[in-house]
Give the backbone structure.
Amino acid sequence: MGERTVPHDGSPTERPRVDALVIGGGPAGLSAALNLGRARESVLVVDAGRPRNSATLRSHGFLTRDGISPLELRKLARTELEAYPAVRVIERALVSSLVQVVDASGGMRFRAALDSRRPGAPTTVAARSVLVATGLRETLPAIPSLRAFYGMTLFSCAACDGWELRDRPLALIGETADLAERAMLIARWTDDLTVFTNRAPVIDVTEEAALAARGIRVERRLIEELEGHRGAVTAVRLADGDRIPIGGGFVRPRWHPSLEFLDALEPATDADGNLVTDGSGRTSVPGLYAAGDAATPGPQQLIVAAGAGARVAAVLTHDVLGVTTAH
Ligand SMILES: Cc1cc2nc3c(=O)[nH]c(=O)nc-3n(C[C@H](O)[C@H](O)[C@H](O)COP(=O)(O)OP(=O)(O)OC[C@H]3O[C@@H](n4cnc5c(N)ncnc54)[C@H](O)[C@@H]3O)c2cc1C
């Protein structure tokens, strides 16, 4: 394999053929693209440009980049990719479907349909291998002004933002069965924690007793609204008018993988709809890989996603050659 630029025929509906199509340009996808480019693969990254952490101004826990803005992190990554002529990125474009086709030489290829508003962007792309790095979508509890505080003083990832909220009176708001466990985790950062279930029956009496033993209160009443100003939450107001003062907190969103475009391939998914991988990023469909938040659960962090992207890039490169050596 020589060093190649992505070939295309120059027409508005050109169909580039690439070694690897990377769907999603977050840390997982961009890190994979960097390592694939360095391995002399031709790569096309297609990115809709809606990262999960777009609500926040600062990202934490990424070694050498602790506190960086999410946009800046992506910008740095994109700049690094520019050194590799065989790596191309199409922004503000969506992969709307992915199928497998038999090519002229009888081999299997993937064909992706692209939905882009950019003039001249290709509408399809053919690829030997595909990496899904499309992250997750979030649905927050239905509290009117929650979005105004999300990413500012209310967060979802304790490892990412617990340090900044340490020693404040905190809330944990959620309606899922893992709420008591998350409360135990968040109590690492505060001795003043109230768990709000918003009337969802998700914490049983045994869990409540265990939380009480750690000094964590459970509040089961309906939440009416959050109070605060300019992103700084100050209280949870309950439907009966009571106010519980807080200085920040965490929300447990419901997470949904963005995988509708894979329907035709029917890859194996778990009960929550996440792609099942073999631990090295291989899905049940040969040639189709996944990394980052889109792959089966684990810590949802930028550096973990970037590491997973790098790992899958190596696995993919080895699979193509049929070699199993570590490096
Ligand atoms: C409020 C908030 C704050 C956070 N703070 C931190 C933090 O401080 N530190 C930290 O480590 N982590 C943080 N995270 C978690 C972090 O954002 C994720 O773990 C990380 O972004 C996952 O990277 P990814 O590459 O898997 O997905 P993403 O970064 O979500 O990127 C996926 C990309 O794929 C695109 N996409 C989706 N579908 C398609 C499609 N069909 N075609 C083309 N493109 C598509 C999306 O638009 C998006 O650009 C935070 C998350 C949230 C919600």
Observations:
- The chain has seven helices and 17 strands.
- The first strand starts at residue 17 and ends at 23.
- The CA atoms of residues 318 and 324 lie 6 Å apart.
